[in-house]
Amino acid sequence: MVMDKRSVNNPRYRRSDPIVPKRPRAGLERNDSIDEILRMKTLHDKFRSLNSKHKVRYSPIKMVGKGGFGQVFECTADVTNSGGYEMPQVVALKTETGSEIKLEMKVLLKLKNHNHFCELYDFGQITPGYSFIVMTLLGPNLSTIRKKMPTKQFTVSTSIRAGLQMLMAIEALHGAGFISRDVKPSNFAIGRPNGNRRMVYMIDFGISLVYKDQNGPVKLKRSEMTWRGTNRYCSLGHHKKHLPSPKDDVESWFYSLMELCVGELPWQYLGKHQKAETCKAKEVVRTTKREYFLGSCPFEFDQILGLIDRMTRDSIVEYHKIYASLTRCLIRDKVDFKDPYDWEYMLSSYQCSSSTAASSDRIETLDKSLYQ
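User: That's the sequence. What structure does it adopt?
Assistant: Structure tokens below.
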């Protein structure tokens, strides 16, 4: 009898032999097949699903994003036996390991049907500890778009209107009981060309934190002061290891707004490990370098920073005062909310220049450049 070397009856069997196949890696290697990594089966047959009555097959087109815990793929969704169930033909499928994706699901479910958040269509598990969610496919993030601008910055009009949308999303997140802990331009994206490219969406909630529930504030643990987020945008309180609060997200939003409007932050060239130096720089721009920091911005920005700095961890964020300050900027500059955003203006300027086929090619090239 031929004995399988993995049989426990085989005297040469070693317990270290991998009887169970190894879990798929979170990172894709150059020679890996996307189909193999995602194991494209129908959710009805294979995975736990929000829509267990319907069979859905997701076919990856390309990778559109990659982070420390997983990837985001643009996929086609083939729904059979829909029974009236509607899903876009093209969706985003995000894969992750660990508990981060559970937080993402929790946030998207809580904020279902909100304008500034993706719609969660489905979720499943590939292997234990390796899961995916299916949601709205978006366009590029604000950081990517800003860097494609000729001056590497947005106009004041676009910065403020995008900033207002960002703050609306943050307010909704806080209202649902979550703190982001990672507010930054790259965590806000615009809609697709065939959707609403004027809408700004908040994304990536893998390190978010529940700070209140139906019973009121949740007591946070000291372990939750562990460094999370991005050095460039995090709040002074986070630098000083204070317990997180909504104020931290609003302060990070302000730094993001400044970067969109000015093109860079004074501490931009400090490395991610230079936390003490970055903290010091953020303190200096509030005192001796305040005019240098805010000099090229509308004076309302100084008022907003003052409002944020007067807040404590337990303060209720006065979003309405920030909205009012930014709205005054737009009124003074005679900006209409219906005016094109900078990314729209880039395309419209090409369209107005000529109606020739060559111009159409330039528009298509620019559009692809923006959305890739």
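Residues 142-332 form a domain with the Transferase(Phosphotransferase); domain 1 fold (CATH 1.10.510.10).
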